[in-house]
Amino acid sequence: MGFNQSVDVIVIGAGAAGMMCAAQAGQRGRRVVLVDHAEKRAEKIRISGGGRCNFTNLNVSAANFLSSNPHFCRSALARYTPQDFIALVQRHGIRYHEKTLGQLFCDESSAQIIEMLERECADGQVHWAQPARVLDVAHEAAAGYRVRTDRGEFDAPSLVIATGGLSIPKIGATDFGYRIAHQFDIPVVTPRPALVPLTLDRATLDALAPLAGVAFTVEARCGDGRFREQALVTHKGLSGPAILQISSYWQAACAAGHPEPVVLDLFAGDDADAWLDAHANSNALPGNLLAERLPRRFARAWAQLQGAERALAQMSERERQALAQALSHWALTPSGTQGFAKAEVTLGGVDTRALSSKTMAATARPGLYFIGEVVDVTGHLGGYNFQWAWASGHAAAQAL
Ligand code: FDA
Q1: Is the dihedral angle over the CA atoms 310, 316, 322, 323 positive or is it negative?
Q2: Domains of the chain from N-terminus onward
Q3: pLDDT digits (tens, 9 = 90+) for 31-64
Q4: pLDDT digits (tens, 9 = 90+) for 2-14
Q5: How many CA atoms lie within 13 A of 91 on its CB side?
Q6: Within 6 Å (CB) of ligand 1, which residues are found?
Q7: Can you tell me the ipTM of this complex?
Q8: What is the bridge-based pairing of β-strands 225-233 and 215-222?
Q9: Which residues have C-beta within 8 Å of that of residue 388, sequence separation ≥ 6?
Q10: Burial of 101 by CB count in 10 Å (0-12 exposed, 13-18 middle, 19+ buried)?
Q11: pTM for the complete prediction?
Q12: CA 164 to ligand 1 centroid distance, Å
């Protein structure tokens, strides 16, 4: 590709959404250049799903996403479904399996998804400019969007921003997309780390940190979020799927200015009251008795934290009820999160109220598109974030 190149579409960010969009626009006959600053291609796909890429989920609906504009994602998700992506994966002969809760993973390696997208881009004759540092972006009436990079200058009537969110800066995440939004007067909902481990206050941490590595099933609740999955004690607080899921809702509540505690039901929906009633005559300490339901070391530490150190038989009914309430509504106020360094995704991003839900184009800036995680649409854990990347990339490509 020459130093000054005019094309139909410039896509910045060759991750999940950018590759999908570039491939499909290329296959529709558009001349596409795909620009990325990273040395390696699609690192986030590579490290995803523990190296096996949880590439979609069988059960996708708008309810699996958080956004300041909850209906925005519907149109794109309806027009590119998990079945569409599964058909693509099958066409490329990639073997996969359902792990749990509709989550689909490669049998072998996430590298297969990257190779598949590279083949799709090759089919669309997409030109790669990678690694290429973007120096600036401008819009000129005659030339359209002009992107100046250290690998040459490109201009095109359409520019697609697919630079993702802020999580894991050490593999190339930047705030580029938000800066471009600001440059073109498009509002951004403040980005926050999501699907992220939570940190706890000193007193709770002193009791729990020695148990780092211990896992147990909970129902985690906060705002509209409710997840029955595993929680995991860490050296800094809590993690595990239930905690990662609920962290997004906790962050959303904080962002809305009404922080709420994270509530953990340690009986995961079972009736703690009835269970304690059935043991009302027990001479065992609560910490020992609860070891029937929870990992022993955790049960003891938790009972100690609650000050529940008398045998059940010695407790009044009111004390037993208070213990049951604490078991099913253990309210924790996180001291914070482990930040973007440990977050799987970014909550917030380019404000969807400024975008067309059909095409992902900025309504006030013809030819400028935002797709994938840079947009204020954040999926649950379980393949939903990739499905959003595929679907939003596809939506934009149909309009290019
Ligand atoms: P993505 O981050 O994929 O791509 C952005 C691209 O833009 C990158 O290639 C980057 O180098 C480039 N870029 C950034 N700044 C730039 C700049 N200034 N100039 C040029 N290029 C720039 N989701 C899921 O559904 N299933 C899963 O199994 C997992 N697993 C997982 C594990 C881990 C550890 C993380 C951190 C995340 C996940 N995710 C996930 C989330 C998923 O990876 C994420 O939502 C998608 O990759 C988002 O796709 P995008 O294309 O929007 O961004």
Answers
A1: positive
A2: 5-192+342-399 (3.50.50.60), 198-337 (2.40.30.10)
A3: 999 999 999 999 999 999 999 999 999 999 999 9
A4: 468 999 999 999 9
A5: 11
A6: 12-18, 36-38, 42, 44, 47-49, 53-54, 134, 162-164, 167-168, 172-174, 176, 344-345, 372-374, 383-386, 389
A7: 0.99
A8: antiparallel
A9: 17, 65, 73, 76, 77, 372, 373, 377, 379
A10: middle
A11: 0.97
A12: 5
Give, for ligand 1, the residue of 137, 245, 344 to mutate: max count of ligand atoms closer than 8 Å to Cβ.
344
Contact indicator for 161, 139 with CB cutoff of 8 Å: no
Nearest alpha carbon, ligand 1 atom 25: 383
The amino acid occupying position 135 is: L
Pocket perturbation via mutation, ligand 1, pick of 20, 48, 59, 195 by most ligand atoms within 8 A of CB = 48
